[in-house]
């Protein structure tokens, strides 16, 4: 599909939002871990296809790997830590009438 060609604005948008929603799913319940496993397996399969295509230059493969590492590992981890930090910062404050 032309709209989702690699490294287009739409491609970055959806890759980043996938990372955001992965962080949200793991933050709600640990059942969200299965969402992360599912996305991880799909990403591994996609990377395997990209790596297996001998017409793809190695620089392009590295770009794909870095983009996925940023959006699907670092972004969800940073958001999860931020959510947890906010939770712990507000946890000790209790409502006193």
TrEMBL record:
Pathway(s) served: Protein modification; protein glycosylation
Protein origin, superkingdom: Eukaryota
Compartment(s) where it occurs, according to its Swiss-Prot or TrEMBL record: Endomembrane system
UniProt membrane topology term: Multi-pass membrane protein
GO MF annotations in UniProt: dolichyl-phosphate-mannose-protein mannosyltransferase activity
Main localization category: membrane
Membership in a protein family: Belongs to the glycosyltransferase 39 family.
Protein name listed in UniProt: Protein O-mannosyl-transferase 2
Origin species: Araneus ventricosus
């Amino acid at each position: 599909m032309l709209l989702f060609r690699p490294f287009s604005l739409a491609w970055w948008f959806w890759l980043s939002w996938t990372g955001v929603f992965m962080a949200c799913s793991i933050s709600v319940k640990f059942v969200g871990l299965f969402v992360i496993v599912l996305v991880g397996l799909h990403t591994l399969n996609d990377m395997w296809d990209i790596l297996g295509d001998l017409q793809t230059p190695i620089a392009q493969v590295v770009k794909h790997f870095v983009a996925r590492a940023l959006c699907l590992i670092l972004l969800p981890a940073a958001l999860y830590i931020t959510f947890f930090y906010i939770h712990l910062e507000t946890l000790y404050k209790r409502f006193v009438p």
